[in-house]
Amino acid sequence: MLNDLQLDKVFHALAHPWRRWILGLLLDREASVQEFAAALPISLTAVGKHVNLLEGYGLIRTRKEGRNRLCSVEPGALLAAERWLRNAMWSRYRPRLGSLPEDLTLLRLR
Amino acid sequence: MLNDLQLDKVFHALAHPWRRWILGLLLDREASVQEFAAALPISLTAVGKHVNLLEGYGLIRTRKEGRNRLCSVEPGALLAAERWLRNAMWSRYRPRLGSLPEDLTLLRLR
DNA sequence: GCGATAGTGAACCATTTGGTTCACTATTGC
DNA sequence: GCAATAGTGAACCAAATGGTTCACTATCGC
Fold it and tell me: Of A106, B16, B28, B60, which residue is most buried, by most CB within 10 angstroms?
């Protein structure tokens, strides 16, 4: 279970479109920093910083393979964030759902 | 469905412990800015700013009742964030789950 | 009517963020 | 061996973040 400080980091990491894009790619397969930079409109240096942040905050792992830095996803952090959200809504909001309007059509929690 | 720019905002809003705390309380019941300030170690002004951010980013609604500003949760944004996370993991990571280690014990996706 | 309470607005401040460029190292492939 | 590729580190910069204090307005309760 992640503590508050770690949740700060996970949500902060997710609060940027290019970091979400990188994570999306890594959920499919491993990839290098260069691959990200080729697709994103920022410099390789900037991409490197995003990767550093993702790794420092525990959302990905990286390893050096030759001159490439290969990244892979570390699912625990994402799962913890998802669980925090789901748990917050379940344990508190859910009991009131009967009295609430059409927001509920969004609820797919089985 | 929220677009990238709105997801940025939702995740950014969640990336602060006091904003998560405020949301947690609001998932139970309505509350005023003053109530938050009484429990948090920051000034009423600072709390007001967090509330402004949460409202501006669409996570809560507020209405003025007398001298109080009553806040209530706007569940759509939270649901969208939760769905983005769940969907990212489902549609991409899930297919590989068979080949993955004990991370999976965390997976409660049914 | 008046003091206490709830909230806002403005000004200010330090730190973080997200980006750049330039210089550099290390590896690859011909 | 050498040019091209992948990445890092340092310096720099503008804007955003998260907080403060002080002054102010509006409402409440006696």
Answer: B60
β-strand A68-73 against A60-65: which pairing, if any? Answer: antiparallel
Interface test with B, best of A11, A22, A108 (most B CBs within 10 A): A11
Minimal C-alpha gap between A67 and chain B (Å) = 27
Beta-carbon contacts of B104 under 8 Å, excluding residues fewer than 6 positions away, are: B97
Of A14, A27, A88, the CB nearest to B24: A88
Tell if A51 CB is < 7 Å from nucleic strand D: yes
Tokens of B55: 């409202």
pLDDT 10s digits, B62-97: 999 999 999 999 999 999 999 999 988 876 655 554
Q: In Å, what is the separation between the CA of A46 and the C1' of D13? A: 14
Helix (H, G, I), strand (E, B) or coil at A82: helix
* Contact yes or no for A89/B82 (Cβ under 8 A): yes
For residue B77, CA distances in Å to A9, A14, A61, A76, B18 come to 19, 14, 29, 23, 17
Closest CA to B22 of B11, B35, B12, B9: B35
Q: What is the pTM of this model?
A: 0.85
